[in-house]
Amino acid sequence: MNKAAEAPGTVRAPATPAVHAAGLTVVRGPRTVLRDLDFSVPRGQITGLLGPSGCGKSTLMRSVVGTQAKVTGTLTVLDRPAGHPTLRARVGYVTQDPSVYLDLTVRQNLDYFAAVLLPGRAAADRRRADVERVLTEVDLTSHADALAGNLSGGQLSRVSLAVALLGAPELLVLDEPTVGLDPVLRRDLWDLFHSLAGHGTTLLISSHVMDEAERCHRLLLMREGRLLADDSPDALRARTGTDTVEAAFLHLVDTANATRTN
Ligand SMILES: Nc1ncnc2c1ncn2[C@@H]1O[C@H](COP(=O)(O)OP(=O)(O)OP(=O)(O)O)[C@@H](O)[C@H]1O
């Protein structure tokens, strides 16, 4: 055994997960929309949150970023309770509806949000560099001076993503970021997600398109507010004896239904 590896100061504690939930439950109106969920989101990987419309994906993401009311159980994000004020700059969030100012250009939008994140004259150079970086990352440099209101839906959602990338957050929470995008843009965005993960960013990405699941390192499969699986795509396929994540999901749904009726 390598003794040097045991010397004080050289042994590293295993990294805690980026997100850890235990008994996570959320009530919205009269309904319990998340029921007693236990899961972890490992750091530096892409975790896909998949399930049919209405199963609770957005509610789970809102809980992680701290904007959801009536959350019970334990929910830890980057070693802090979800919603903790120190997480604001460390967590990027993109909702399903692009949240940008339509009467500003792309660059003006980014300058504005960069100033909120990094205020003060002393940070002007950092802000400028950050805006150029995110414009390049989402491939919108050539549209930087276009009015947001004149962009296509796909371009607008990339502006929203660029806003979330400002400040290089450690955790990115993206609610259906590829909806309505053509296949080339979808592929380019997934390449960007992998590049971000390669540099250590943790990504939690929701989708109801099962083929996107194949591009994730880990999957949380949801149905009706419950988790059907928390596994890697390979392990899921192997465990269910199926060839695709979609077939694995359907297999798990059928098993859950059979257990309920028995
Ligand atoms: N204010 C509310 N009161 C009661 N139920 C609500 C409320 N808001 C949402 N819901 C219900 O909570 C459930 C989960 O909604 P959520 O938006 O999290 O689902 P989702 O999986 O993200 O769906 P989609 O993929 O269509 O966005 C849905 O069944 C929805 O009808």
TrEMBL record:
InterPro entries: AAA+_ATPase (IPR003593), ABC_transporter-like_ATP-bd (IPR003439), ABC_transporter-like_CS (IPR017871), P-loop_NTPase (IPR027417). SMART domains: AAA (SM00382). PROSITE patterns: ABC_TRANSPORTER_1 (PS00211), ABC_TRANSPORTER_2 (PS50893). Residues 19-249 form the ABC transporter domain. GO terms for molecular function: ATP binding. Keywords: ATP-binding, Nucleotide-binding. It holds the Pfam family ABC_tran. Signal peptide: none annotated. It comes from the Bacteria. This is ABC transporter ATP-binding protein. It comes from Streptomyces beihaiensis.
